[in-house]
Amino acid sequence: xxxxxxxxxxxxxxxxxxxxxxxxxxxHVEIFAYGSxxxxxxxxxxxxxxxxxxxxxxxxxxDEFDTLKEQTSxxxxxxxSRFEAAGFHVLDISLxxxxxxxxLLQIQIGRxxxxxxxxxxxxxxxxxxxxxxxxxxxxxxxxxxxxxxxKGFINKEIADRLGISTTTVIFHRNxxxxxxxxxxxxxLTIYAVLAGIIDINEI
Length: 203
Description:
Helix content is 55%, strand content 14%. It has a five-stranded parallel β-sheet with strand order 2-1-3-4-5. About 2% of the residues have low confidence.
């Protein structure tokens, strides 16, 4: 049975946006979105490796998630300390796409996914090696540009820092996106962190 992610959130826009971001970052994982706990329970005969649950639904079904703390991320705006003190991951849905991608790395969903695929205690090394192989296709200059891209610098700032023209930066950006197969800053951030181009604390 394939590993799956579950998003349980009554807010259609919120769950759709998160689903799209997760699809872009984890494009080999099945992602199912539910508007209520009842919908989820009705369709729960799947191998879920992580749950994204709105704070409202979580409060109404605390007992169901109490034994799944490592596999559960609570979707919230603020109120982090309360959830984290209880041992749950928190995903602040008011953050930017890049910041959310960084949070996904911090809660080590990649490690959970690798464990589900191998049935073992893989720590995510397989995922890291896969991303490293992809980024090894990049030139030294493209890696420099990628690092500054995921740090949030615009084209002119990247050009000034690297001593190249803005046109050259755009050329490198296009090559990076073509080689990695994405223009999503969230997914580019995942690549850069797992390949060791940037430290997660620098995001």
